[in-house]
UniProtKB/TrEMBL annotation:
Binds 1 zinc ion. Residues 1-22 are annotated as: Disordered. The gene is nrdR. Belongs to the NrdR family. Keywords: ATP-binding, DNA-binding, Metal-binding, Nucleotide-binding, Repressor, Transcription, Transcription regulation, Zinc, Zinc-finger. Negatively regulates transcription of bacterial ribonucleotide reductase nrd genes and operons by binding to NrdR-boxes. Residues 49-139 form the ATP-cone domain. This is Transcriptional repressor NrdR. Its cofactor is Zn(2+). InterPro entries: ATP-cone_dom (IPR005144), NrdR-like_N (IPR055173), RNR_NrdR-like (IPR003796).
């Protein structure tokens, strides 16, 4: 594994343990050249997914890109990283279980929004603002209004 600090290929595993949901192996590593310490995760990948962008362009699915987007939305929010990793793993499992090797960027965004809604309301709105391409304050107002109405419908359904 290449060191993220100096680029050296000579790194050593110091500690390995399964994640809380046993969906991955967490490895603490140290670089033998610079002494830098970092963590890697080893996960099962059922199939190679291809993302079909809105432009029609096709690119390989990149879990790290999804992770960066989610963690950007969660910046300065107090959400346990293990919960975020479980959510990300769940999104990937859902995408893999669709049965198709080609998935749309909209499907990924919808699953991410659904997951963030259950983790943190602020991160959910942050992610939605980028995903839905908000350009003005009115976009936020109408989105939050729609969200409030859908929550009211959910509560009415639950009361029955």
């Amino acid at each position: 594994m290449r060191c993220p600090y100096c680029g050296n290929d000579d790194t050593q595993v110091k500690d390995s343990r399964p994640t809380e949901d046993s969906g991955a192996i967490r490895r603490r590593r140290i670089c033998n050249a610079c002494g830098g310490r970092f963590t890697t995760f080893e996960r099962v990948q059922l199939r190679d997914l291809t993302v079909v962008k809105k432009s029609g362009r096709k690119v390989p699915f990149d879990r790290e890109k999804l992770s960066r987007s989610v963690f950007t939305a969660l910046r300065k929010r107090s959400v346990d990283p293990e919960r975020v990793e479980r959510m990300l793993s769940g999104i990937v499992r859902q995408l893999e279980s669709l049965g198709d090797v080609e998935i749309t960027s909209d499907q990924i965004g919808d699953y991410a929004m659904e997951g963030l809604k259950g983790l943190d309301d602020v991160a959910f709105v942050r992610f939605a603002s980028v995903y839905k391409n908000f350009s003005a304050a009115d976009d936020f107002r109408s989105f939050l209004s729609e969200l409030a109405h859908s929550d009211e419908r959910d509560i009415q359904v639950d009361d029955d």
